[in-house]
Amino acid sequence: MTKVVSCINLKGGVGKTALSVNFAAYCGIQGKKTLLIDLDPQTNATFSTIGVKKWNDEVKINGTVADLLGAKKHTNAHGTTKTAQQVIVKNVFENVDVIPSHIDLFTVDLDLASARFRETKLKNALKGVLDEYDVVICDCPPNLTIPTQNALAFSTHYAVPVTLDFLSAIGVSLLVKRVEEFGEDLDHSLKQAGVVISRVGRPAVHREETVATLRAQFGESILTNVIKERASVSNAAQKNHPIFSSNDKHAKDEFLDVCEELLQRIEA
């Protein structure tokens, strides 16, 4: 069975994209056929894998995840959308394909306001290709709007990266509760893969108290390993490479440990 993991948090800047992109790369290195889906209209995961020029070409010719969600029907007189086979960009990393994002996702909630089954459009669009992958990873925007709901609607697991600042951590309980309620509404079972402490080293008020609160509240849900704030992570993304291609041994080891732990939890 394909494992589908949504990487979510209600706050931006917590390392969702870095975790999504590098976890996809890790799964590919492990020999697992992997699909990375960028559902954030900021398109950071897309630019981290294929760059701006190739993205522009893909948008014009093959389309993006916005097409799969129906966000651009209003621009097409025939009301047609692209297929998953068309929008998937093959082999961006070893064993890793990507579905790129688009700025149109900023208004997708308005586009689909009256649409039927709007939370399952992505699931339905991927029916023909899902079995081709061992792992699917969804990089979600920092909210619970239609793109995130579509990711959760066909996910088997969700992971929550969190930084050690008060606002990032305080929203985790709310997020978990809302995800559980969403799963119940759709009669869809979702497992929490874990909470990943990320970007350690950035200035944060009451860091020790935040760590203690997180570990007391979520216990074993908190991954043992953490990801530190390192310039090499963003440098690798700018070159469209995973961190595992960099020369920063510390960064590579940190992501290896986190990704290995995350994969073990998903496959347990």
Structural class: alpha/beta
Widest sheet: strand ordering: 3-4-2-5-1-6-7
Taken as a percent bin, the fraction of beta residues is 5-15%
Count of extended strands: 7
Q: Report the mean per-residue pLDDT as an integer.
A: 91
Provide the CATH architecture: 3-Layer(aba) Sandwich
How helix-rich are the residues, as a percent range? 40-55%
Coarse morphology: globular
What is the highest CATH level, the class? Alpha Beta
End-to-end distance = 13 Å
- How many structural domains are formed by the residues? 1
Outline the structure in words.
- By secondary structure, the protein is of the alpha/beta class.
- It has a single domain, classed as 3-Layer(aba) Sandwich (Rossmann fold), CATH 3.40.50.
- It has twelve helices and seven strands.
- The protein has a seven-stranded mixed beta sheet with strand order 3-4-2-5-1-6-7, with helices on both faces.
- Helix 1 packs across helix 12.
- It is globular.
Keywords:
Rossmann fold; 268 residues; alpha/beta; seven-stranded mixed beta sheet
Brief summary:
The protein is of the alpha/beta class and 268 residues long. It has twelve helices and seven strands.
Question: Can you lay out the helices and strands and say which pair or pack?
Answer:
Elements: E1 3-7, H1 16-29, E2 34-38, H2 44-49, H3 51-61, H4 65-69, H5 84-87, E3 89-93, E4 96-99, H6 108-111, H7 121-125, E5 135-139, H8 146-153, E6 157-162, H9 166-185, E7 191-197, H10 207-218, H11 231-238, H12 249-267
Parallel strand pairs: 1-5, 1-6, 2-4, 2-5, 6-7
Antiparallel strand pairs: 3-4
Helix pairs in contact: 1-12
